[in-house]
Specification:
Order of helices and strands: EEEHEEHEHHHEHEHEEHHH
Structural class: alpha/beta
Helix content: 25-40%
Strand content: 15-25%
CATH architecture of one domain: 3-Layer(aba) Sandwich
Mean pLDDT: 88
Length: about 270
């Protein structure tokens, strides 16, 4: 695994994020460097996807600064934001492939949208990229003709065909069988190493992520709870970290929903009726 001493591609400095009056995360500090595979982990609703949306400029920070490619993303105009996003690749949770296009045309789509290269160059680039994910000879197939695991690989090929400097993976292991899951995990590591890019995984899958990542950022209870290498987090004595990694049903995240005055008031109304 690669550790590169360089300026971070993504930097969260004292960042708070939320929606409306609700604050999801406070005082988050994260750096992601070229060559790194980083996992942002946490339970459902902990704010993982919120971090992704802040990275792409979809959600402005309430406090602190989100810097991507050395630029404060909140200060970019529409043209600057578009330029920054073109330096990113995104693998969406369900792939988001165009079902009416072939495997080849799905991967070719970013090249047609964002470059002026020739059809011959598109053919070479797409087939080379599909070969990286083991699907060169599936280029002619329709999306309905391939398995879910293969579709995830097509989506990965589309995300990297422009050779981005930053790749964002939103729950890349969700819904995959064990073989497909292992393939995707190793492809993420290999693509990052080959491109020298930074990769951020939004995930709650512990074994698969720990096998390939350089750094883990664990969020929960509205904050960044722990960070470090997989070995460092595995050795942590923090109760929340231990509960999350071991999948224990009770702990800092309690099994029983807490009693509240609102519940007692509701119950009193029920018992009086």
């Amino acid at each position: 695994m690669t550790h590169v001493a360089s300026d971070p591609i993504v930097s969260f400095a004292g960042v708070s994020l939320g929606y409306g009056e609700f604050t999801v995360l406070e005082d988050v500090n994260i750096d992601v460097h070229p060559g790194q595979v980083v996992a942002m982990m946490g339970g459902s609703g902990s704010g993982k996807t919120t971090l992704l949306r802040a990275t792409t400029g979809q959600l402005p920070a309430r406090a602190g600064a989100v810097r991507v490619f050395g630029q404060d993303i909140a200060g970019l105009d529409e043209k600057g934001l578009r330029a920054a996003r073109q330096r990113m690749g995104v693998l969406f949770q369900q792939g988001a492939l165009f079902t009416d296009l072939s495997v080849f045309e799905n991967v070719a789509f970013p090249l047609r949208e964002h470059t002026c290269i020739s059809e011959h160059q598109i053919l070479e680039r797409v087939l080379e990229t599909l070969d990286r994910v083991g699907l060169r000879h599936a280029a002619h197939l329709g999306i309905s003709e391939i398995s879910g695991g293969m579709a995830r690989r097509v989506a990965l090929a589309r995300a990297v065909v422009l050779e981005p400097e930053l790749i964002l993976y939103d729950e890349p292991f969700a819904g995959l069988d064990p073989i497909s899951l292992g393939i995707i995990a190793q492809l993420i590591r290999r693509m990052t190493d080959a491109l020298g890019c930074a990769s951020i995984l939004i995930t709650h899958d512990v074994p698969e992520s720990f096998a390939i990542v350089d750094q883990v950022f664990l969020i929960g209870q509205g904050q960044l709870i722990a960070q470090g290498t997989p070995d460092q987090l595995s050795a942590s004595t923090d109760a929340y970290v231990h509960q999350f990694l071991e999948g224990e049903p009770d702990g800092p995240i309690a099994f029983h929903y807490p009693d509240t005055p609102a519940f007692e008031q509701w119950l009193a109304g029920k018992t009086r009726s």
